[in-house]
Amino acid sequence: MNKLSATAIALLAFTSLAQAQDAQLIDVADGVYQFTAMGYSSLVVVGDDGVLVTDPANPARARLMIDAVAGATDKPITHVALSHEHYDHVGGTELFDGAEIIMQEDGLDVLALAVLAPAPKVTVSFDDSHTVDLGGKTVELLHPAAGDGVATSIAWVPSDRVVYSGDLYEREEFTIPQFKEDTNFVGVRKILNDMVALDPAYAINTHDDGNSVEALRVNAVMMNELYDVVKARFDEAIASGDGGAPWNVMFCIADEVKLDQYAGWKNYESAFPNYVWRMATSMYHGG
Fold it and tell me: For the whole model, what pTM was predicted?
């Protein structure tokens, strides 16, 4: 064995150990858990007949998830629900033998174009909603609108008032533009408001190891304020009677609109202009 291969093997072993140490199954409510590992959070719901999990992300994390669930219950993982079609969320589904793989139907055409990763074999797709009965626990999968991707769905556990979502918001942070290029901000605003209206006790999102409802509410307020400012600019342009005015708004609005009450959030200076642009393009182009 040469020195390079030995170093590579040692590095892989260290990485695997670090990932395993990072993995946690957090008790949220009766039979409801939050699985965190490798920078992602997933919802885990245990019923009398089986277990539902969300967004395994990739095969290595899926294995950690399977092991963590096995340490908490002897019930099999029977359902894997995907929050949307992005490849960094849907990987690893092949490890869940016999489980239903569930995703909102609008993402199927996207998965058919998979280039860099094998697409999951979705066995159950749905339009607006789908209810999973786990025996003593139900999970409602809801598609309020296109958000981050076209197949955006949230998971709601009504008995315990736990809501789960993927890539719709971060805690006091603006996501960098490279990860928001196909995000419909009008849809995100609607989904966040719909989640707040559910009056959850816990709100889990994929890139946060907490489950703060306040983070969800603050982001909904921010998106409402952003929506109102951008919509007012378009309304003013349309009212001017100049047919080109709404188009012209698109080229200046990102530099002109500020919400300095959020200046303390991470990436405000670098990423917030893109939030303005994405809200404007979502209004003007419908996506």
Answer: 0.91
